[in-house]
Amino acid sequence: MIESSRSQALLGKTLGTCRIERILGQGGMGVVFLAQQQRPMRYVAIKVLLPDVSMNAQVQQHYLARFRREADVIATLEHMNIVPIYGYDEQDGMAYLVMPYLQGGSLYDILAQRGSLSLEETIKYMHQVAQALDYAHAHGVIHRDLKPANFLFHSDGRLLLSDFGIAHIVQDSMSTQEAPLTSVGMLPGTPHFMAPEMLRGEQFDYRIDLYALGVILYQLLSGQLPFDGATPFVIMNKHLQEQPPSLHQLRPFLPLEVDTVIQRALAKNPTDRFSSAIAMIEALSTASSSSVQEINFDAPTILPFQTMPAVAAPAASTPPRDATTVKSSISQRSQSRIRQGKKPLLAEERKLVTILSVGVDSTSLFEETPDPEDVRAFIRQYHTHIQQVISHYEGTIEQLADDTALAIFGLPQILGDEATRACAAALALQQATSNDRESFLLQIGIATGEIVVTNNSSSTKYDVQGEVVKIATRLQQAADVEEILVDERTAQVAQTLYTFGEAHAIKLKGRKQSLRSLPLTGMQQSRQIDRPALVGRKQDLLQLELLKERVLEEQRPHLVSIVAPAGIGKSRLLEEFLSRLDTSEGFQFATATCLPYGQSLPYRPLHTLLTELLDGDIDRQKILDAFTRSGHTYEDATRLTEHILTTLDTEQEESTDRERMFSAWRMLIESLAREAPHIIIFEDLHWASDGLLNLVEHLMHPRTQAPLLVLALSRPELLERRPNWGGGQKNFLMLNLEPLSNVQTRELVRRLMPSLSPEMCQRIAARSGGNPFFAIELVRTMAEQGNNGENVEMDILPDTVHAAILARLDRLSPQERSIVQVASVAGHSFHATMLQAILSDLSPDEITVALDELLARNVIEPAEKGEYGLRHTLIRDVAYGTLSRADRIRFHAAIVNWAEPLATEHPDEYMELFAYHYREASLLARQSAVPLELPFDLNRALRPWRRRDRGSWLDLDFSE
């Protein structure tokens, strides 16, 4: 508590030319602050050493002297992979170091996001680390605290070693002067990464760093630590007594030779280890030759997610996100998405994706023939820009060449907004590069369409093929410098959020028809969307209006969760409710929108919320005034304001200050709501971090006494994560929106397009399955085609609807997804025994569990005689569309094999099913080059059936 007070007291103070703004991290003997340096003007990280106040003066002076000497040594370590020191000084009895403020995240962040790394990535990263380590060792410096959190990414893609020497001096002085080696909190390093000789108290040398590097290699490749335990003492004992679990057994795809390298790196005896870090990594590279053909050590480094706004890069006056010391953790949301993002069971799938192709005009930067090193530096910087922006918007980089890149939005998982994310990424990329000191002149093309994805089970890479890739590339080539060209499909989907210029035609090689393209010019300043009248939500609307009256009457907060799948009408209900509010009631509004991407900061949505609460900008004085107006002292208001601002940039959901931050937010909103009733809206809360969900619930604390209505819109996935969401709270209401009835959907369609016949309204209602968004999009597509319903093809599927359903399918587990795909081939209904015969890789128990999950998710519904059926025809159509032609043939043929004995025994019941799937398999086989072994001659098999005069369609000729 004393150390925390000393740290807090430094906020706002100036050390040298640096004004301290906030705490980035805190350890036992020092604190890291974010500071703004005045000369030169930049953000820096300052490490301030704060010795324990209980130390006697002699020990403190000894500690300070050691730190001075070590700082001099570190300052001499001039290496491209070591964090440099800008300056060292002492002020008011404190020694401090001024260092770069690195924003690229750490290796720990990547582990937290992905669990483990590929062998190729590990070698690329660790080669940089090894060069830095050997350089430091050659200069007599031992790190002593190597761990993934101390490997930081520079904005240019380099991996840098940090925290050299600090722990070494701190712990040496303490261990010799005050405490035994094993005192809690006084271990000279981190127990998971400490060499046995250190734990035994023996003399040690640079090889303790090589041991730690071996631990890190093991962790990167396996996703777990070689030695772990409940307490430091258990971990230490394992380092001393046990051998690590076989890496090859944990990851069988890794060559045995790799396991041998790791075992040598973790040898208990220092003399048995490698002679240098480079020797270790070179041995690892050699061992990997059976799985990695070539390791390019100069290849660009893929950075973890950056915090970026929707379109533009952060302004220069905005402090960048910290990734220097604060560790990230995988939230339940992230773990869920990692689980859902597993590759499907099928080898090939068709997907609707958006492709972004980008090229750079490198010649514009060089007036004459450039030096090769300048070109390489330029390309690295360009690659860094691409990787940061694309990964932020959850895209996958498919190709990254010298001056071109190709990104896919929709792999590995479709979120439903691929086209809009690609547009946002293109604008952000354009803005980020134009703000750069040496501007990149970009040409960008974006196209939406279907691809065939081949899944490689032994790799994280995908083989992608499709015409849309060529279209995106052609658009990029046709774009002028600093222009973004998109195809019509992309513009159609993204037009509610983005503005586009005049369309013009582009000739495609090998095509008779030209391609219509539109330049992407920016974001819509306001969303002008024609909304149809609200249909079928009178009861839900009434509940919201009654609850609003209670909030005003009781002067207490209430939380309403509006839960429904995508497209059912959550936002439309909210709009209608807000439009009916009486202005005399004086309600103020603020909104926080949770996104499925770019949320490396768990409380990032609060940034927009706070901006709206404060009427336009985040101003410290405005927050202070709000607290003081509600009766807080200036000191309390200052403390609470600091908690509010700290929340916006914290990376840890389980922060030690979490309760204080939550209380500060509750009191701020309560203070504002006492001045005027407030409605706080959380959109897409299913994407929120666990910490943000806890904060939303905390707003309903019994101590809150103010007219506050919190409206939380989410999909059912929220209840999968939080089954007891809102449980036990008296001031909580959940509205579960159901699909519209057939009558309600027909009424909606009739209001949208009065010229449609009752029969056509019924067909659209049946096809949309009660989803108003689907119905609206179907009608809109018909209207755009100039169709009044006459001779309309009802198999039209707007990309917006297609993407929404694909996103729902992608959230299923691989087992559930495969069942839905088989069901889409089966047609009207299917039986569990059919699934067991076709999906032989799944056990009966796995199929039963998956069926139960699909029932709970309302994807399937029970049918007669123990059968099941897909709930909506659109789900069937989209799921069938994900199958490659080969898999369609395979599934149809598998159903034929399953149905053949049944059709023989019960022809009246099964022969039509048997013949239908035989016909489909035959027709598909004739249309493709896929060989197909059919069980027998269908014409001969159908003769008895035809003699019964059943079904004229059976008179088709199935002969070759």
Textual characterization of the structure:
- With 960 residues, the chain is α+β, with helices and mostly antiparallel strands.
- It has six domains: 2-100, Phosphorylase Kinase, domain 1, CATH 3.30.200.20; 107-290, Orthogonal Bundle (Transferase(Phosphotransferase), domain 1), CATH 1.10.510.10; 344-523, 2-Layer Sandwich (Alpha-Beta Plaits), CATH 3.30.70; 538-736, Rossmann fold (3-Layer(aba) Sandwich), CATH 3.40.50; 742-796, no CATH class; 803-955, Orthogonal Bundle (Arc Repressor Mutant, subunit A), CATH 1.10.10.10.
- Helix content is 44%, strand content 15%.
- The protein contains 36 helices and 24 strands.
- The strands form five sheets. Strands 9, 10, 11, 12, 13, 14, 15, 16 and 17 form a nine-stranded mixed β-sheet that branches.
- A hairpin with a 6-residue loop joins strand 12 and strand 13 (462-465).
- Helix 20 (620-629) crosses helix 21 (634-649).
- The longest helix has 21 residues, at 372-392.
- It is globular, with a radius of gyration of 31 Å.
- The relative contact order is 0.06.
- Mean pLDDT is 78; it is low at 166-186, 290-343 and 947-960.
Any key phrases for this structure?
960 residues, alpha+beta, Phosphorylase Kinase, domain 1, Transferase(Phosphotransferase), domain 1, Alpha-Beta Plaits, 6 domains, 9-stranded mixed β-sheet, 6-stranded antiparallel β-sheet, 36 helices, disordered C terminus
Note the topology.
Layout: H1 2-9, E1 14-15, E2 18-26, E3 30-37, E4 42-49, H2 57-75, E5 87-91, E6 94-100, H3 107-114, H4 119-138, E7 151-153, E8 159-161, H5 166-177, H6 196-199, H7 207-222, H8 232-241, H9 247-250, H10 256-265, H11 277-287, H12 332-340, E9 348-360, H13 372-392, E10 396-400, E11 404-409, H14 418-434, E12 442-455, E13 462-465, H15 467-478, E14 483-487, H16 488-494, E15 498-500, E16 504-506, E17 515-523, H17 538-554, E18 558-563, H18 570-579, E19 588-593, H19 605-613, H20 620-629, H21 634-649, H22 658-675, E20 678-683, H23 690-698, E21 708-714, H24 717-721, E22 732-736, H25 742-752, H26 758-768, H27 772-784, H28 799-810, H29 814-826, H30 832-838, H31 844-856, E23 860-862, E24 868-870, H32 873-881, H33 885-905, H34 907-927, H35 938-941, H36 943-947
Parallel strand pairs: 12-14, 18-21, 18-22, 19-20, 20-21
Antiparallel strand pairs: 1-2, 2-3, 3-4, 4-6, 5-6, 7-8, 9-11, 9-12, 10-11, 12-13, 14-17, 15-17, 16-17, 23-24
Helix pairs in contact: 2-5, 4-7, 4-11, 7-10, 10-11, 13-14, 20-21, 20-22, 21-22, 25-26, 25-27, 26-27, 28-32, 29-32, 33-34
